[in-house]
Design brief:
The complex is a heterodimer. By secondary structure, chain A is mostly helical. Chain A has two domains: 74 residues, no CATH class; 218 residues, MetI-like (MetI-like fold). Helices cover 77% and strands 0% of the residues of chain A. The radius of gyration of chain A is 24 Å and the shape is globular. Chain B has one domain: Orthogonal Bundle (MetI-like fold), CATH 1.10.3720.10. Chain B is elongated. Classes of the chains: A mainly alpha, B mainly alpha. The interface between A and B is large, with 49 and 50 residues.
């Protein structure tokens, strides 16, 4: 019951954020240089057509009214219409969503075990050469340009060795796994260092906690202290890590999808920008923000379920 | 004389007690700065000189990094591109830093409505993945470095403000701040003379991480055709240019990327070292 009221409270806190996200995406479209009506009808349209379009889309009304209309449409799940595809943006997002979800889950399943392994190895021999190596790797790996890694890997594994396809999505689960391996690997290579650094720090912090000192002073062997006391307590930071990952992941997948021609949301975003299909850009930005907020919320809820001490 | 000698000695000692990562990081950044400043001297060829007779040549003693599809020397272009990327780094980090520090200082010190509004803006901005928001803003404003800097100024200041505010909240209740207040100094003096200098270290450490993010974002935009515009040599643009030839000529893509990695590593190491030094 108490958990429920905490949950409701947390959801209420989200409201201003959601409102803010909607306002930002609304303003995004207001940044477009030039006349949005002109953009809709093309360069050679007459003044009458322009006026009609302005009337139809409410572009001649004051901003607050337009914002109100935008909110009203959002509430109904209406994200506007794509000029390029002549389709509702929400439908487009659903259409391009599966490869991106597949890719994201793929990356997570590659990243989390690797991160755990490396971070544990580093924390277990704190100060040793393995720790130093992993720390340097953590500092440097983050600086890799994702698209560069993508191109180099696709040349090596795709062209040179011919092990993996370098573009597309394929059909069926196994083909997806095969096609998306390089994109997922590329994103992981960039992501793992960031995550390892954060988890390693959490593990080291825990290893100096009072309960660990207590366990040591009871005379528990160091192995037992690590596996029974330090690691379970580092579970929460790991979970938190997943929340942190999402924002990086979405940013990373956009580039990776562009390089490997994966028909997902990132590619849709880039191609929409290039073809000035702004309502799609707006809808996707909103969607990405909502996805981030949702994952963060889920991570928070899971955290409270695992650890009753944490308040939402 | 002896005072001077002592001073010199202690300064030297200070440097030698710096963390190794800081020294290494600063050396790498310094190296790139020198290369960028003296690019015309350091580059063996004109970066834009087209040479149809020597296109897509593999790395050799004449062309250390090979030549691209127009016969341009990849090494020279990589060196000249450092100018653009370093400029990007400065223009992408400094304005957000200045805005963020000011906002964080004022809202943290004064509190009240300004503070509440700032925190709401922070909550909303971090809800967007950084690269998505930057990409969307540049996409809507139109391609080019100027719009990239505008996007970063709009998005990037928030983290600085947040970091600054957290520090200021601690420092404003510290004894020296109280002492300054009881001596009758005004809020402006206390903020600038007492709070600001003591609150800067987390901001400076984060600025290094931010610089890496800016380089990555800038190169990514260049790669997608939305950042620096060709024929201006920029690492991301060079990689994009070379992508279609990567099967025949890997070096066009490889070396600009390597350059970005080394500069990024210099910045990341400096950040790591600064964090250790200032802790």
């Amino acid at each position: 019951m108490q958990t429920l009221s905490l949950l409701v409270n947390r959801l209420l806190q989200l409201l201003p954020v959601l409102l803010g996200i909607a306002i930002v995406t609304f303003l995004l479209l207001k940044l477009t240089p030039g006349d949005p009506a002109r953009l809709l009808v093309g360069d050679r349209a007459s003044e009458e057509t322009l006026a009609a379009v302005r009337q139809e889309y409410g572009l001649n009304r004051p901003w607050p009214v337009q914002l109100g209309t935008y909110f009203g449409k959002l509430a109904q799940g209406d994200l506007g219409e794509s000029i390029r595809f002549r389709k509702p943006v929400s439908g487009l997002i659903l259409q391009f969503l599966p490869p991106t979800i597949f890719l994201v889950l793929y990356v997570v399943s590659l990243t989390v075990p690797t991160t755990l392994l490396l971070a544990i190895a580093a924390a277990r021999n704190h100060g040793g050469w393995a720790d130093q190596a992993i720390r340097v790797f953590g500092v440097c790996g983050f600086t890799l340009p994702v698209f560069w890694v993508a191109i180099m890997l696709s040349r090596l594994f795709g062209v040179e060795l011919g092990w993996f396809p370098v573009s597309g999505y394929g059909t069926g689960f196994l083909e997806h796994l095969h096609h998306l391996f390089l994109p997922a690997l590329t994103t992981s290579i960039w992501l793992v260092p960031v995550m390892v650094q954060s988890l390693r720090a959490a593990l080291l912090e825990k290893s100096e906690a009072d309960f660990v000192t207590a366990a040591r002073s009871k005379g528990l062997p160091e192995r037992g202290v690590f596996w029974r006391h330090i690691l379970p307590n580092a579970l929460l930071p790991t979970l938190h890590l997943l929340g942190v990952m999402v924002a990086y992941l979405i940013g990373g997948t956009i580039i990776v999808e562009a390089v490997y021609a994966v028909p997902g949301l990132g590619r849709l975003m880039v191609s929409s920008i290039l073809s000035r299909d702004y309502s799609v850009v707006q809808g996707l930005t909103l969607f990405f923000a909502l996805a981030t907020v949702l994952v963060t919320l889920l991570v928070d809820i899971a955290t409270t379920l695992i650890d009753p001490r944490v308040r939402l | 004389m002896s005072v001077l000698a002592q001073h010199g000695l202690s300064a030297r000692r200070a440097v030698s007690s710096w963390p190794g990562t800081l020294v290494l990081g600063l050396l790498i950044i310094g190296g790139w700065l020198l290369l960028a400043i003296f690019a015309p001297l350091a580059a063996p060829f004109d970066p834009n000189a087209v040479d149809i007779l020597h296109i897509l040549e593999a790395p050799s003693l004449t062309h250390w990094f090979g030549t691209d599809q127009a016969g341009r020397d990849v090494l020279s272009r990589t060196i000249f591109a450092a100018r653009v990327d370093l400029f990007m780094c400065v223009m992408g980090v400094v304005p957000p830093l200045l805005i963020g520090v000011t906002v964080g200082l004022v809202s943290g010190y004064l509190g009240g409505v300004a503070d509440a509004v700032l925190m709401r803006i922070y909550d909303v901005t971090v809800a967007f993945p950084f690269f998505v928001l930057v990409l969307a803003i540049v996409g809507v404003l139109g391609p080019g470095l100027g719009n990239f800097f505008i996007a970063l100024a709009l998005v990037g200041w928030v983290t600085y403000a947040r970091l600054m505010r957290a520090e200021v909240l601690v420092i404003k209740t510290s004894e020296y701040a109280l002492a300054a207040r009881s001596l009758g100094f005004g809020p402006l003096t206390i903020m600038l003379r007492h709070v600001l200098p003591n609150a800067l270290s987390p901001v400076l450490v984060y600025a290094m991480t931010d610089a890496v993010l800016v380089i990555l974002a800038g190169a990514s935009l260049g790669f997608l055709g939305m950042g620096a515009q060709p024929p201006l040599a920029e690492w991301g643009v060079m990689i994009a240019d070379g992508q279609s030839y990567v099967v025949r000529a890997w070096w066009i893509c490889f070396f600009p990327g390597l350059a970005a990695v080394t500069l990024g590593m210099g910045l990341a190491l400096t950040g790591d070292g600064l964090a250790r030094l200032l802790r």
